[in-house]
């Protein structure tokens, strides 16, 4: 997975970076399900979007229930870059 740094520089994401994001996303979902068990079905997926690494808010977590699952997200967690998102 290619990541962007400072708008025009690219680097390859390390396996540890991707694994860390997956762990953080799964932990986030588990924490939210535990905090609100009556609505645990609202926390079934997490779409992790990685933007420009120079930005302090370069990672965005989008999550929800199965009724609002994005197309193409088949598992519990998907990690992608903003460059891989086609705007409608």
Report what the structure shows.
This protein is α+β, with helices and mostly antiparallel strands and 88 residues long. It has one helix at 15-35; strands spanning 2-5, 9-12, 45-50, 59-64, 77-81. A hairpin with an 8-residue loop joins strand 3 (45-50) and strand 4 (59-64). The relative contact order is 0.23. The model has no long low-confidence stretch (mean pLDDT 89).
Measured as a percent range, the helix fraction is 10-25%
Global Rg: 14 Å
> What characterizes the major β-sheet?
3 strands, mixed
Low-confidence parts: none
Order of helices and strands: EEHEEE
Average pLDDT number: 89
End-to-end C-alpha gap: 23 Å
Secondary-structure map:
Blueprint: E1 2-5, E2 9-12, H1 15-35, E3 45-50, E4 59-64, E5 77-81
Parallel strand pairs: 3-5
Antiparallel strand pairs: 1-2, 3-4
Quick overview of this protein structure:
This protein has 88 residues and is of the alpha+beta class.
List the main descriptive attributes of the protein structure presented here.
single chain; 88 residues; alpha+beta; two-stranded antiparallel ribbon; 24% helix
């Amino acid at each position: 997975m290619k990541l962007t740094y400072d708008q025009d520089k690219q680097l390859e994401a390390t396996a540890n970076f991707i694994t860390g994001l997956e762990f953080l996303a799964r932990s986030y979902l588990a924490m939210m399900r535990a905090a609100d068990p009556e609505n645990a079905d609202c926390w079934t997926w997490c779409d992790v979007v990685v933007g420009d690494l120079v930005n302090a808010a370069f990672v965005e977590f989008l999550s929800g229930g199965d009724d609002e699952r994005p197309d193409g997200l088949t598992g519990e967690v998907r990690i992608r870059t903003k460059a891989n998102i086609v705007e409608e």
